[in-house]
Amino acid sequence: xTDSPKNVQYLKDRVLFSINPKIYPxxxxxxxxxxxxxxxxxxxxxxxxxEIIAELKPKNKGEIREVVTKFAEELLNYxxxxxxxxxxxxVREMIIGRVFSTNIQASETxxxxxxxxxxxxxxxxxxxxxxxxxxxx
Amino acid sequence: xxxxIFDRKRHAVILNLNTRVYKMDxxxxxxxxxxxxxxxxxxxxxxxxxxxxxxxxxxxxxxxxIGYEFFNHVLAEMKISEDI
Lengths: 137, 84
Prior knowledge:
The complex is a heterodimer of chains A (137) and B (84). Chain A has 137 residues and is of the alpha+beta class. Chain A is 46% helix and 18% strand. Chain B is an alpha+beta fold and 84 residues long. Chain B has a four-stranded antiparallel beta sheet, covered by helices on one side.
């Protein structure tokens, strides 16, 4: 193996990835590994506060390189997504909160309107039916 | 410590799952689903490493492959329960 990074260790039919959890938290590692489960068997180990070890065993023996590249890519993708969603968390919660509060107010106004409709006075007796009652034969 | 040990004599596979990486309830859930096809035994230290022994009920099934699939299933369960 020539240019493999220090955190990647190639074995006979599998590869060991050493991951720094301060860069890639455990949730990110889970997501990246999950993206690979159709191509490889993934086994995780280590300490989520110190070092996470991911053992990847490709389902097809020839795909070891491809699996390593894809795992590294997915780690990056999910790390960016994780950080972005963490930054947007407050705004997201605010928007959802606003949506729900608006809905509650809207339903209250509809109820109030219905109640008002029921309370309309009928001083001239217009609301009463005008058709004469049928005569008995 | 080996994460997967294949016991050829018993036609069984022994998995060592780190409970700091995989949650215990997820391990048990998958163990229950695998119990239809295998004899499952869960033991070990809940705070560190749990040992799951899978012995396929049928000789036609490859124990080693089932062991690897067990890891993937627990991983999928972990991922589903998380936000991202």
